[in-house]
Design goal:
The radius of gyration is 20 Å and the shape is elongated. It has helices spanning about 25-30, 35-60, 65-95, 100-105, 110-125, 125-135, 175-180, 180-185, 195-225, and strands at about 160-165, 165-175. The N and C termini lie far apart (about 50 Å). The relative contact order is 0.17. The protein is mostly helical. It is about 60% helix and about 5% strand. Helix 3 (about 65-95) crosses helix 5 and helix 3 (about 65-95) crosses helix 6 (about 125-135). The protein is built from nine helices and two strands; from the N terminus they run ααααααββααα. It has a two-stranded antiparallel sheet.
Length: about 230
């Protein structure tokens, strides 16, 4: 049951040339306070999204039917839902609030304006919002149980892993991980739970790619305007 969820082909980790860009302290100090805050916030958005993506790749690689593989499955669910919640929150910050006001003073290319509109449209749907409210940052108010997954749960899925020496960090309820994805399956239509879940993950990952591009290019535009010599 833990094998087909997030294919690695959806998240490709390729070698990159790493370049360090040092921002002069005097130029940072000379920036308008709202622009400096915007630069810091956009960087935080990218840090979190990139880390979650990399951890998601590693956890997906480790998924299998043995105990360690099921632990990787649980970690993949945590990383994917947290990523969706972060993308939803970050996109909203770019769209409205103090960050949006600060970015209005930045000259954006027509392409970047179009990308922002595309991101806003994606973020206005129910998928990321429901993941953020029902799984990522909140727990469901209704009772947790199997509805969509009931016909797929087997004896081997009803597993708890623990060690006798202690409980902090050493208990894994695989059964609860499966029950925890129930709210995801209600979001999409599909013939099987795998089809439904794959549709959700595809949307999350496609939106994440768009989000990271928009945030990165906003940082570049902001730096280009505030610190032209960089």
């Amino acid at each position: 049951m833990a094998r087909l969820l997030i294919g690695r082909e959806h998240i490709v980790a390729r070698p990159r040339d790493l370049r360090k860009i040092t921002l002069p302290k005097k130029d940072l100090d000379a920036m308008k306070p709202e622009h400096r805050s915007a630069l810091l916030m956009l960087g935080l958005f990218l840090n979190e999204a990139n880390w979650l993506l990399k951890l998601l790749v590693r956890s997906v690689d480790g998924m299998s039917d043995d105990p360690e593989g099921q632990a990787s499955f649980s970690l993949a669910m945590l990383m994917a839902t947290t990523l969706a919640g972060k993308v939803y929150e970050g996109s909203n910050q770019v769209r409205k609030g103090w960050l949006s006001i600060a970015l209005k003073e930045v000259q954006l290319s027509d392409e970047l304006k179009l990308l922002r509109k595309q991101l806003n449209k994606r973020n206005s749907g129910d998928t990321l919002k429901d993941i953020r409210k029902k799984i990522a940052f909140h727990y469901p108010e209704e009772r947790l149980d199997f509805n969509n997954l009931a016909q797929y749960v087997e004896d081997s899925d009803a597993a708890l892993f623990m060690v006798p020496e202690g409980y902090v960090g050493d208990i894994l309820s695989h059964l609860s991980t499966l029950a925890g994805i129930e709210p995801l399956l209600a979001l999409k239509d599909g013939t099987t739970y795998k089809d439904k879940l794959q549709t959700v993950w595809d949307e999350v990952l496609e939106t994440t790619r768009l989000y990271c591009r928009v945030v990165g290019e906003l940082m570049i535009a902001l730096l280009g305007q505030s610190i032209p010599n960089v």
